[in-house]
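Quick one from the shared queue. A colleague (R.T.) flagged Transcriptional regulator, LacI family as missing a structural entry in our internal table.

Convert sequence to structure tokens.
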Amino acid sequence: MAQRPTIKTIAKETGLSTATVSKALNASPQVRPRTRDKVLQAAKELGYELNISGVQLRTGKTYQIAMVTVIASPDDDEWAGVGYTQLISGISRAIAHTPYRVVQYQVASFDESFEVIKRIVQNKKADGIIISGTRVNDPRISFMQEKEFPFVTYGTSDASAPHAYVDTDNRRIVTICVDRLLSKGHRRIAMINAREELNYTQNRVEAYTASLSRAGLSFDPSLIAYGRLTPAFGREQLFEMSMFEEPPTAYICANEATAMGVLSGFQVRGMEHGRDAVVIATDDLNVSQYFSPPITTCYLPISKPSETLGQFMLDLIGGEDPKNLQKLFVPDLIERGADTCNLEKQQAQS
């Protein structure tokens, strides 16, 4: 019977020391990526399996990364854009070469997410935590910083001390969209936004008002809506805003789910995209290429931020300074139409 391969077997196969092989198998940041890949490839070919239980006993680590997410009730059948399974898939790919695995904690509310985080930290149920849905002043962030517990956020915050984060550059996105619409002659631009307490929502509003100000236009708060980003929410806002004395001629939607709802509202109201108003969306899926008509989108593949979240988590656990682990992605603007409409009435009024 063939002997079970060991760290010594891999060391002999690769010509590396047992210490280097051990560090590579345990995802130590001290090992160069090329060396680590060499060790992992040899381990795979030899059929080596890491004894996680033994490693946990020796190191005191759980080799688990907790992903804490607030999700909708299972009774809610409204699509709300990117699913967290896709986010976790990207994180898992980033850590696939390590002993680490993602454990998802699904909760129903922000307060519940905070309680779960407290239990994870206090009971050492994971070596690091990834959270999303960050607020302007997020107490979860303050708590983990106080406890010196490794964490990465999918989203920024106004925390006084720097922390590791990955996010879309929401200010840049909105600036791109508003400036594009202004260049097309639009002056009444609506923005369908996420919940008001979220940090990225506030970033979008700041960029929106700044773009209007540069164009010499005043800010109309009635043109911004806050809520859960579902098709129903998008359609409700279209129904309401299209009845304004001066209705919007353009809608910037925070995701493709709300954009789909706005387009659905067009049909009910007898409106036509490109004649009465236009829609621009921002999202990580690019589903809008299949809308009828396809709409202009600021598109960022979910794989980019999700894999970076995983890598940052590993770097942080390895001792990297959080201030060196901050990344904002700028999506690509995919233009699928002229994004102009009949503005004669609007121009006459202005």
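The chain has a mean pLDDT of 88.
The first strand starts at residue 64 and ends at 70.
Added to the table.
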